[in-house]
Amino acid sequence: MSIEVRHLIHTYSEGSALSVRALNDVSLTIEDGEFLGIIGHTGSGKSTLVQHLNGLLKPTSGQILVDGEDLNGEHVNRRALRQRIGLVFQYPEYQLFEETVAKDIAFGPKNQGLSKEEIDERVRYAMDCVHLDPATYSERSPFELSGGQMRRVAIAGVLAMRPSVLILDEPTAGLDPRGRDRILSMLEELHSREKTTIVMVSHSMDDMARLATRLIVVADGQILASGTPREIFSREDMMVSAGLGVPEASRLCSALRSRGLDLPPDLYRPEELRDHLLRLWHASSPKGKEGSVC
User: Is the model's pLDDT at 294 over the cut of 60?
Assistant: First the structure.
């Protein structure tokens, strides 16, 4: 499933003294199967943009095309299109309400009018996707779980709808390092194994470096830059001007270059930097020249 945004403009409180233009002539295409990261400082328009992608907001002007159909067209089946695009808000665990994990995850499929067998299969599928064992967690109250587990239950409730596109707004916000890593590993596996198209908003450049296949930088309601993580993170001056940082590996790489190490400008993953430093050490040490390994 592809999503195309054409000349999107969104103005809050249009026509009033409190009018604010949150998006200004934004155009982009989200290709089937990609992992798109959307980054920008607070107030840049990221959340407004993703809420348009499943029709939660209506544009002031412009179009959102889902497989060629205008999401806000006059005769379009918007409900059917929206069910194919799952949106996970910040802190989705606040929306949990059922007495058991399984019932909460089953809520969406039940509203789709599916059979009990299909609902049960979807609940098991979704729990598997978020690494929660059905035998252990199905009958437990979601409110007895850890914060990270609750968030995974909330995400499972969206996945049980079997969306073609999954949109997540700051999915690791407020989690401890272990909970954050579980969410990231889950998304990494979902994209790799299920080929799900994922759109993720995040303030964490390290999370984006780990997961995204393409990045969009949003600033003042417009797209400032688009490219692979390697292309975006190599433009450190641009990132700083947009009120953003770069991954820890990129920062360390810059510091090492300033001290005379011959490092390329586009290293942004810890494992890449590690491997490059090992090659430099190996090439420069006497033992390395004799062919030993460290």
Answer: no
Query: DSSP assignment, residue 188?
Result: H
What's the full length of the chain, in residues? 294
Token code pair at residue 85 = 């695009």
Per-residue model confidence as pLDDT tens digits over 258-270: 888 888 888 888 8
Helix residue ranges, H only, 77-204 = 78-83, 101-111, 116-129, 134-137, 147-159, 177-194
Q: What is the mean pLDDT of the chain?
A: 92
Q: Cα–Cα distance between 70 and 87 in angstroms, integer? A: 18
State whether the Cα torsion 235-214-248-176 is positive or negative: positive
Cα 223 from Cα 24, distance rounded (Å): 9
**Helical residues (DSSP H) of 131-235, grouped into ranges:** 134-137, 147-159, 177-194, 205-211, 229-233
DSSP assignment string, 204-230: -HHHHHHH-SEEEEEETTEEEEEE-HH
Task: Tell me which DSSP letter residue 76 carries.
Answer: -
Residue 251's CB: how many other CB atoms inside 10 A?
Answer: 15
What phi and psi, each to the nearest 5 degrees, are found at residue 162? 55, 55
**Cα dihedral 14→18→19→20 (10° resolution):** -140
Identify whether the C-beta of residue 130 lies closer than 8 Å to the C-beta of residue 159: yes
Segment 30-42 shows an average pLDDT of 95
Contacts of 55 (CB under 8 A, 6+ apart): 64, 71, 72, 78, 81, 82, 85
115-168 pLDDT tens trace = 999 999 999 999 999 999 999 999 999 999 999 999 999 999 999 999 999 999
Q: Please indicate whether residue 293 or residue 163 has the higher confidence score (pLDDT).
A: 163
